[in-house]
Amino acid sequence: DGGITQSPKYLFRKEGQNVTLSCEQNLNHDAMYWYRQDPGQGLRLIYYSQIVNDFQKGDIAEGYSVSREKKESFPLTVTSAQKNPTAFYLCASKAQGEYEQYFGPGTRLTVT
Amino acid sequence: QQQVKQSPQSLIVQKGGISIINCAYENTAFDYFPWYQQFPGKGPALLIAIRPDVSEKKEGRFTISFNKSAKQFSLHIMDSQPGDSATYFCAASEGGSYIPTFGRGTSLIVHP
């Protein structure tokens, strides 16, 4: 069964703590993406990676960090510097040269 | 600056009616226009997509109409069903980056 998995589905953290969201894909896709979704805001790009060991900032990268040590994995760390971290986070992947992105089921992060 | 403007923000239709969602873009380099469907608590999934060399694409009850000169495209859902109730996002990509720019989404409710 090919696809993208994100874990956990729900995550709760106290303010001031860093938290890492997992994203794994077995589609053999080169590119992976992290989006943040807030009500009425659409999908906003946080970071993306087109190849292992390389990644670029998206539109709202401040307060976030990523790594891409393996083709299958693209974890996102929400740091304590992110001022408003409570949101629904979506991971996506895409084959090289293709347009279509495939999304994971998302992680809902709540920080109190 | 919002490069893809989507309207309406929310839409309520009766079962059997036609749902119409509109998007407008500015960047003439965009050459791929997908629509994604997202159910609550899930990741978006590609519904239908169009390239600018055609003016219309139909898949079942879903049709994209594309007006290149006006830089607008729209999604029509014929014979709308309660199971179509979801959030719909339009997007636009260009072949250089392949990174989509998303509209802010339309929440569709189809009453039985």
Observed structural traits:
heterodimer; A: 112 residues; mainly beta; seven-stranded mixed sheet; four-stranded antiparallel sheet; B: 112 residues; six-stranded mixed sheet; five-stranded antiparallel sheet; 11 strands
Characterization of the model:
The complex is a heterodimer of chains A (112) and B (112). Chain A is an all-beta fold. In chain A, 0% of the residues lie in helices and 52% in strands. Chain A has no helices and eleven strands. The model of chain A has no long low-confidence stretch (mean pLDDT 94). Chain B is globular, with a radius of gyration of 13 Å. Chain B is mainly β and 112 residues long. The N and C termini of chain B lie far apart (38 Å). In chain B, 0% of the residues lie in helices and 53% in strands. In chain B, the strands form two sheets. In chain B, strands 2, 4, 5, 9, 10 and 11 form a six-stranded mixed β-sheet that branches. In chain B, strand 9 and strand 10 form a beta hairpin.
Produce a short descriptive summary.
Chain A is mostly beta strands and 112 residues long. Helices cover 0% and strands 52% of the residues of chain A.
Please specify the SSE layout and strand pairing:
The complex is a heterodimer of chains A (112) and B (112).
Chain A: E1 4-7, E2 10-13, E3 19-25, E4 31-38, E5 42-51, E6 54-57, E7 64-66, E8 76-78, E9 87-94, E10 102-103, E11 107-111
Parallel strand pairs in A: 2-11
Antiparallel strand pairs in A: 1-3, 3-8, 4-5, 4-9, 5-6, 7-8, 9-10, 9-11
Chain B: E1 4-7, E2 10-14, E3 19-25, E4 33-38, E5 45-50, E6 56-59, E7 62-67, E8 72-77, E9 86-92, E10 101-102, E11 106-111
Parallel strand pairs in B: 2-11
Antiparallel strand pairs in B: 1-3, 3-8, 4-5, 4-9, 6-7, 7-8, 9-10, 9-11
